[in-house]
Structures are given as C-alpha cells and as structure tokens.
Amino acid sequence: MRNTSFLIPIVVIAIAGILSSLFIVDEREKVLILRFGQIKQEITEPGLGFKVPLLDEVVRYEDRILSFETDLIEVTPADERRLEVDAFVLYRIDNIRQFRQALGAGGETQAVVQLQGILDSQIRTVLGARGVTSNTILSPERAALMGKIRNEADSRAAALGLSIVDVRLRQTNLPAQNFDATLQRMIAERDREATDERARGREAAQRVTAQADRTYTEILSEARRDARIIEGEADAARNRIFAEAYGQDTEFFEFYRSLTAYEEALKGDNSSMVMSQDGEFFNYFRSEGGAPAQ
Fold it and tell me: 10 Å Cβ neighbour count for 189?
C-alpha cells in the first residue's frame, strides 16, 4: 500500500506534464514556440504539437485573410480638387517568424497600426500623382489605381512578414467646406460644355440646311431648264405640224383657225362684240358656200 500511494502522485505529475507538453494546431492558424522569448520552432501545418512544459510558450497567429479599414484621409489630385477617401484592406500573415521579429508581442494590433501608415502613404502618393485627376479617381479607371496602391503597399508590408491581398477605395467624398464651391465649378463646366455642344450643333445644322438649299436650287433649276427645253421642242413640233397642215390645204386651215377664234371669242352666256359688219372676222358667217365674201 505504501508503494502504491507513493506512485500515484508521480503518475499524476507525469500525466500532467505530458498533457501540458501537448497542444493542437488548428488549420486556421500558425504557431510559434518561444523559449525565453526566442523562436525555437515554427509550425504551419495543422496537427498535434509538443513543447517543453514551463519553458516553452505557444504563440498562435491567424492563417486566415484579415481585414481592416483605413482612416479617412484627405488627398489632392492633379486638378486641385481635394477629396476625402478611405480604403478597405485585406491582408494576411505570410511569414510568422519575420512577423514576430518585426512587431514583437504587438501581434495583429501592431500590424494594423503599421499597415495604416503604409496605406496612408501609398494612397496619398498614387492619388496625388501627376495626371491623376478627381475624375480619374471617380471613374472606372480607379481599379488600376487600387491595383497600384496594393502593389506598392505589398512591397513595403513584406518587411513585416505580411502580404496585402487587396485594397478597395470605399468613400470618395468632397470635403464639406469645398463641396459648394466644387459643385458650382462643376455646374459651370457642364454649362460651358453644353454651350459648346449647342454651338457645334447649330453650325452643323446650318451646314446641312445650306447644302439642302443648294441642292434644292440646283434640282429646281435643272427641272425648269429641262421643262423649257421640252416646251420649246413641243412648240417646234406643233408649229411644224401646223405648217405642214397649212401647206396641204390653205383654205381648210384658214377655216379651222377662224372656228378656233370664234370659239375663244364667244365664250360665256352673255358674250357680246361690237365691230364692223364688213370686218374680216366674220367672213365665214357671211359666205354661203364656205368661201370668204368679196
């Protein structure tokens, strides 16, 4: 009984020591084993790990993608139209050994502070570069600007054992004190553009109208010319026919012309004429045989 009672505490202590030397590494994390503050082991794969009880310390780091939002900062693009912007940042701990050496026990809190400074600097640099205007920042071209910010920030974050996965600009607002002035300037610019467009439209309309008038005049002139030619040809053909008919039977032609003259002169129900009865106009009325009276 004495031997058994003596062994029980030893077994308990041994079991406690074994249990305290074991730990589990989750698939969502990476682990560093520290001994007196110095890195002894780096574990990046999930599973069961071992440490020396009382001497070793297990420090766990997220292996998932982390995120934070930058503070709202003011930038001045090339067109001097100041904007207030902030960004949503995705990052991850890429090298936990370098991360620990660079930031110490500060961990993720200190990482966010460092990344905040890096992102602020890169946002100001990229959005304030020559050729980058407020219209560029507010247009679909901002995707290229965000990619440039991410690349520049990632190269600096690598020294901290971090990698920048993505950067997205969130708010892009005008400062309150500049909003009204900027709005009025934008309205004036749009009015000027509208005036220019209307002037160009009127100029184009005048060109089209002038061309249409010229075409109309040319077509009408050609039509009148062709009509006169056709009328002249018709008159010539008519005169030729009359001349041929007159040459074939002179008396009949004179008779026909007199009847036509009677028809034109005596139109209407109350036509009246005052003329000498010996006039030649009524020769065929006075002749019984159809020939003019002597």
Answer: 10
Please give the distance of CA 60 from its chain centroid, rounded to a whole number: 48
Q: Break the chain into its structural domains and give their ranges.
A: 2-62, 66-173, 185-242, 249-286
In angstroms, the CA 155 to CA 94 distance is 13
| The token pair that represents 158 in the structure block | 């690598």
CB contact set of 187 (below 8 Å; sequence gap of 6+): none
Whole-number Å distance between alpha carbons of 283 and 288: 10
State the Cα–Cα distance between residues 184 and 182, nearest whole angstrom: 5
Contacts of 145 (CB under 8 A, 6+ apart): 126, 127, 132, 136, 137, 169
- At position 244, the amino acid (one-letter code) is E
**Cβ within 8 Å of residue 41, ≥6 positions away:** 32, 33
Is 30:76 a contact under the CB 8 Å cutoff? no
> Where is 29: in which H helix or E strand?
strand 29-35
Q: Which amino acid is at 172?
A: T
Distance CA 173, CA 51 (A): 53
- Report the alpha-carbon distance of residue 245 to residue 181 in Å, rounded: 94
- For residue 285, the surrounding DSSP H or E stretch is helix 283-286
Q: What percentage of the chain exceeds 70 in pLDDT?
A: 78
β-strand partners of 105: none
| pTM over 0.70, yes/no | no
Instruction: Check pLDDT > 90 for residue 89.
Output: yes
Residue with the two structure tokens 């009204």: 180
Closest CA to 292 of 245, 254, 263, 253: 254
Vertex 26 angle, CA 22 and 28, to 5°: 155
SS3 of 196, please? helix
* Residue 93, beta-bridge partner list: 162
The more confidently predicted of residues 225 and 51 is: 225
Q: For domain 66-173, give the CATH number.
A: 3.30.479.30
